[in-house]
Design a protein that fits this description.
Oligomer: single chain
Number of strands: 4
Structural class: alpha+beta
Order of helices and strands: HHHHEHHHEEEHHHHHHHHH
Number of helices: 16
CATH class of the domain at 1-63: Mainly Alpha
Strand order of the largest sheet: 1-3-4-2
Shape: globular
Strand content: 5-15%
CATH topology of the domain at 1-63: 434 Repressor (Amino-terminal Domain)
Helix content: 40-55%
């Protein structure tokens, strides 16, 4: 068991046998023997292993196993199998903690994820995704206003959102099912912690589209294009686009797009696309604006302050809820949060705020 954990931690950290051996002051053969269970590392070596792989020592002894099944990556060809395996291990490490935490509650504190009622059984054209997205919002009682915290909204609905530290440009998103050793299963979506908030939000909505549109698209409809259309319509519904931009426009100002970007968490480029899709601007106007947009270099980096990144908060809230209900101990809470006990005590008593801020 420890051997499997060592291998998983090494792969997730992107370390070779030789590199990890050098960090521990042992040969790559010794690391190989640790991973195969032929040798057992000492307590001091485990500490070094934990530091080198950026995990806590408890990780090596965790017995709650989770398997990722039906993992589907949105990726470029450069994001190969080795990189995919490493990312899945990073995701599993977070999922195990969440699944373990949920197991402490007598009744699950979150809903079981499922498609909302009233969705069309078949989507025969991309334009039909406008109605589809509206029905998703209605079924989940989200209204038509901007969704301020998309991660929190999806997690409350039972979807595990995993934010992984992944800088590889070839990674664009992941959906999968996490299956536990006792047969429970949870749908998960993974995005990168290094992306700006608007890209995270669009990716989350895009991956949600894959989950909701599975087996519903008519033959000939490209699934990626359908999920892109759903994501835009889910984040910025047709009625909101028409109301805020007007029914017909001959042009749109950049300041308008920038303001809407920060209100809805959808990029300026995304808003240009939504204006075209909702008939606010013609294809010709969209093309002209897009050429000007591209000439400014905004396709790579849009102007102004970035949209704040998404941060899953439900996990931390549930840790403290479980502690308050005495389902877990302080030490278990600190372990789940991945912080030392002294820091946990300070944060529990709200003593971690920098006093200098008030001077």
């Amino acid at each position: 068991m420890i051997g499997d954990r060592i291998r998983q931690a090494r792969l997730a950290a992107g370390l070779t046998l030789a590199a990890l051996g050098e960090a521990l002051g042992v040969t790559h053969t010794s690391i190989q023997k640790y991973e195969k269970g032929i040798m057992t590392p000492s307590s001091s070596q485990l500490l070094k292993l934990a530091r080198a792989c950026a995990v806590r020592v408890e990780y090596f002894f965790r017995v709650h196993q989770v398997e990722l099944i039906d993992a589907e990556f949105r990726r470029l060809a450069t994001f190969g199998k080795t990189a995919q395996d490493a990312l899945k291990i990073k995701a599993v490490e977070q999922i195990e903690k969440r699944v373990q935490l949920l197991g402490f509650f007598p009744q699950s504190p979150v809903l079981r994820f499922g498609r909302p009622e009233g969705l069309p059984e078949r989507v025969r054209a991309l334009d039909e995704l406008e109605t589809f997205a509206n029905r998703v919002r209605a079924g989940w009682k989200l209204g038509l206003d901007p969704i301020g915290d998309l991660t929190d909204t999806l997690e409350t609905l039972g979807l595990l959102v995993i934010v992984v530290d992944e800088a590889h440009p070839g990674f664009s998103g992941l959906t999968a099912t996490a299956r536990t050793s006792d047969g429970r299963s949870y749908p998960i979506v993974a995005v990168s912690s290094q992306w700006p908030g608007d890209r995270q939000r669009f990716t989350l909505a895009h991956e949600l589209g894959h989950l909701l549109l599975a087996d519903r698209l008519a033959a000939g409809i490209n699934e990626e294009k359908a999920c892109d259309r759903f994501a835009g319509a889910f984040l910025a519904p047709n009625s909101a686009v028409v109301q805020l931009l007007g029914p017909v426009r001959r042009g749109i100002e950049w300041q308008e797009l920038s303001a809407l970007k920060h209100e809805f968490g959808l990029s300026m480029a995304g808003w240009l696309q939504r204006a075209r899709q909702c008939g606010v601007i013609s294809d010709a106007v969209h093309l002209a604006l897009w050429k000007r947009f591209s000439s400014k270099g905004w396709r790579k980096a849009e102007p102004g302050h970035p949209v704040p990144r998404e941060h899953p908060r439900l996990f931390e809230q549930l840790v403290y809820r479980a502690l308050g209900e005495q389902y877990i101990s302080e030490s278990k809470a600190a372990e789940l949060l991945g912080i030392p006990m002294m820091r946990f005590h300070r944060e529990r008593q709200l003593e971690s705020v920098d006093a200098a801020a008030y001077q």
